[in-house]
Structures are given as structure tokens and as C-alpha cells.
Amino acid sequence: MTEKKYIVALDQGTTSSRAVVMDHDANIVSVSQREFEQIYPKPGWVEHDPMEIWASQSSTLVEVLAKADISSDQIAAIGITNQRETAIVWERETGKPIYNAIVWQCRRTADICEQLKRDGMEDYIRDNTGLVVDPYFSGTKVKWILDHVEGSRERAKRGELLFGTVDTWLIWKMTQGRVHVTD
């Protein structure tokens, strides 16, 4: 049996994906990083191609293991840090995103947030989630996708779509669709 003595950190950030291999004493063994495209369809809107996120992150993982000259069976653990409130919706069956990832910086849902405040939902949301009403958070991004991508609300009701932040997306892709989780 191969000794599992390395830890991999995946850092999926706003402008690049990085992978780091550390030994058991937390010494850095190797690093790989890849930038990816920022998409600005309108002023105040920021998107990423989820497939490009996956390609950049998976390629850094392959490269960092090769640079360290280790195999995946020598990995004891993988940790993921990511751009948190960036939202992705994809097809459960195919894994195909139905829209670009809406990035945490995107302000397109400001009107939705203002309507929630006018409707008196601010206290309810804060009391039940601990969050303030702000376009930064994922909930209004999902609503925007369901409202603007044709047929998506009906597909979601039928259980055909999955949602997640980038950590969820990466875990789902790494497990070939077997695991849909978040922290």
C-alpha cells in the first residue's frame, strides 16, 4: 500500500486557479497556477465560464502532481478554497452548465435585492440565514438564472438542475457527478 503523505490545496480564485502540494510537515512541494477569462457582458456584471473554471483547476491539479513526481494515491487529503458566492447552475444528467457562473462581484441582482427590502423580507432573511440582503450572496443569483434562462425554473422543479458555489461544482466534477455537497 502506498503511503499517503501529501496534502493538496486547490485555490479556485476570482482570476485564476491554483494547486499546491504540501508534504506532511506543510512544506510546499510544488505549485501550479492558471488564469482564466473574465466576462463582462454589461456594466456591473461579471461572469465566468464554469467549464473554463473546471479546465483551469483540473489542469493545475494534474500539473502540480507531475511537478512533485507523485501519484494521486499518495494524497492524504484535498482542501478547497474558492471564490465563495459565485453561483453555478448545471444539468444533473449531463453536467452542462445552463448559464455562465455569476461571480460574487456581479451587481445584476441589485433590483431583486431592493424589491426584497421593499417587501419587508430583510429581517426574515437575516434571521433565517444570518446574511444581509445583498447581490454578493448566491440566492438572488439563482433567482436571476431561473427567471432569465428559458425553461430553467420548470427544469429545477422537476429536479433536473443542480446549484452550487464553486466548491460544490469542483467536488461534483471531481467525483464525476456522484457527490453534490458544500460546506
From TrEMBL:
<keyword id="KW-0319">Glycerol metabolism</keyword>
<dbReference type="InterPro" id="IPR043129">
    <property type="entry name" value="ATPase_NBD"/>
</dbReference>
<keyword id="KW-0067">ATP-binding</keyword>
<dbReference type="GO" id="GO:0004370">
    <property type="term" value="F:glycerol kinase activity"/>
</dbReference>
<dbReference type="GO" id="GO:0019563">
    <property type="term" value="P:glycerol catabolic process"/>
</dbReference>
<protein>
    <recommendedName>
        <fullName>ATP:glycerol 3-phosphotransferase</fullName>
    </recommendedName>
</protein>
<dbReference type="InterPro" id="IPR018484">
    <property type="entry name" value="FGGY_N"/>
</dbReference>
<dbReference type="InterPro" id="IPR018483">
    <property type="entry name" value="Carb_kinase_FGGY_CS"/>
</dbReference>
<keyword id="KW-0418">Kinase</keyword>
<dbReference type="GO" id="GO:0005829">
    <property type="term" value="C:cytosol"/>
</dbReference>
<keyword id="KW-0808">Transferase</keyword>
<feature type="domain" description="Carbohydrate kinase FGGY N-terminal">
    <location>
        <begin position="6"/>
        <end position="183"/>
    </location>
</feature>
<dbReference type="GO" id="GO:0005524">
    <property type="term" value="F:ATP binding"/>
</dbReference>
<dbReference type="Pfam" id="PF00370">
    <property type="entry name" value="FGGY_N"/>
</dbReference>
<keyword id="KW-0547">Nucleotide-binding</keyword>
<comment type="similarity">
    <text>Belongs to the FGGY kinase family.</text>
</comment>
